[in-house]
Amino acid sequence: MRQSTRILRIETGGRGFYEFTAALADFVRGQRMSEGLLTVFCRHTSASLLIQENADPSVLQDLEAVFARLAPEGAGYAHDTEGPDDMPAHIRAALTQVQLSIPIIGGSLALGTWQGVYLFEHRRRPHRREIALHVMGE
Amino acid sequence: MRQSTRILRIETGGRGFYEFTAALADFVRGQRMSEGLLTVFCRHTSASLLIQENADPSVLQDLEAVFARLAPEGAGYAHDTEGPDDMPAHIRAALTQVQLSIPIIGGSLALGTWQGVYLFEHRRRPHRREIALHVMGE
Amino acid sequence: MRQSTRILRIETGGRGFYEFTAALADFVRGQRMSEGLLTVFCRHTSASLLIQENADPSVLQDLEAVFARLAPEGAGYAHDTEGPDDMPAHIRAALTQVQLSIPIIGGSLALGTWQGVYLFEHRRRPHRREIALHVMGE
Q1: Are B9 and B77 in contact (CB under 8 A)?
Q2: For C78, which of B54, B58, B60, C64 could close a Cys bridge (C-beta 3.0–4.6 Å)?
Q3: Cβ distance C38 to C117 under 8 Å?
Q4: Could you confirm whether domain C2-137 is CATH 2.40.50.140?
Q5: Which of A53, A63, A101 has the CB atom closest to B39's CB atom?
Q6: How high is the pLDDT of residue A23?
Q7: Residue C1: closest CA among chain B residues belongs to which residue?
């Protein structure tokens, strides 16, 4: 059994969904493992991870509207010194994922047909985000 | 250290909770590992995973009501071509888990006394769902 | 590749956030692994896990207010025999994490600068909580 780690850097253009499934598949392919486990970890508290449908972009548009309702700006937060989008960012991160682990079967990630892996940027401005990857298998 | 993978198939009868803790325990028992880690991954974006109390069924009834409120049908979604329960299904999946990893200690899953592992089916109609399993340990 | 498990016990003083990042870092340091994966699993359905900002305590205060709104007490739940805070506890657990896996890189947990790992106690009264840890690496 072998393992490997890497820090993946993603530049976001502000609030929204950034698919990086292909970067994960590339990393896994380079390991030449037939079976294993990939772990994806977001090193931030104002961005997070989400696996969602990558076929119809309107799914992501609706998801954005849902999170805008669950974590509204200007709701009288105690934590407001970093801008009106900061506390909503922490709430969005709390309600989604900071980490995902995906089995590797037959040399590939065992994602379903329509599943894409997204970085969910919660801040309005562009950010550089770091994703820690860990894979083990053989 | 050894590893093993499997695809588990679950037939759902439409929206609701389907416990499959016993199938996971069987899979782990067959591995004869005293310590390790089981990863459970749902290969869908309109069904998800949840660990909840398996003692009183009214907990699941209340949870269903909560998600019906957080992800209502007919809320004017942009994504509506696959039926009124489709976008709510994606929202329910985003707010719960696509993946769970459970330590194996003393030869068994380290679940708490009242913890059951459920497939949370979000669509109204019956579906065949696939769960990818990965276990490693010795 | 080696692995190790442990049960970590945390005494809570009732509803709120209890950071235990230092206990995780100690456990990992004791393993003397340069690369690996730590998995943290909460063995309860009325407490859960959350990674959040550990710099400004007002973030946690706002998060508490958000979950009080998403999972209100006295909302006419079917499951109410264990007290008014019990069903809200299950809802809070469903919306957050039961498990987190964190890569180990360069001998340390690959947490971001501001990320702290918290036990999120959902019941009003103090409880003894058990967290199962699993680490593998070398």
Answers
A1: no
A2: B58
A3: no
A4: no
A5: A101
A6: 98
A7: B1
> Which of B137, C62, B59, B98 shows the shortest CA–CA distance to A71?
C62
Contact in structure between B118 and A120 (CB atoms under 8 Å): no
Residues in chain C, pLDDT under 50: none
Pairing state between β A16-19 and B115-121: unpaired
* Each residue's pLDDT tens digit, B21-30: 999 999 999 9
Average pLDDT over residues B78-97: 96
Residues of A in contact with C100 (CB under 8 A): 98-99
Cα A39 to Cα A26, A101, B135, C101: the distances in Å are 14, 4, 14, 8
**What average pLDDT does range A76-94 have in this prediction?**
96
B49 and C41 in contact (C-beta within 8 Å)?
Answer: no
Residues of C with CB under 8 A from a CB of A: 1, 35-37, 50-53, 56, 58-59, 61-63, 66, 70, 95-97, 100-105, 110-112, 114-115, 136-138
**What's the full length of chain A, in residues?**
138
What are the residue boundaries of the structural domains of chain A, listed by start? Answer: 2-137
pLDDT value, residue C16:
97
Token digits of residue A137: 């298998």
Name B84's Cβ contacts closer than 8 Å, sequence gap at least 6.
Answer: B73, B74
Instruction: Tally helices (H) and strands (E) across chain A.
Output: 3, 8
Predicted TM-score of the model (pTM): 0.98
Q: Which residues of C touch A134 (CB under 8 A)?
A: 35-37, 103-105
How far apart are the C-alpha atoms of A56 and A116, rounded to whole Å?
A: 11
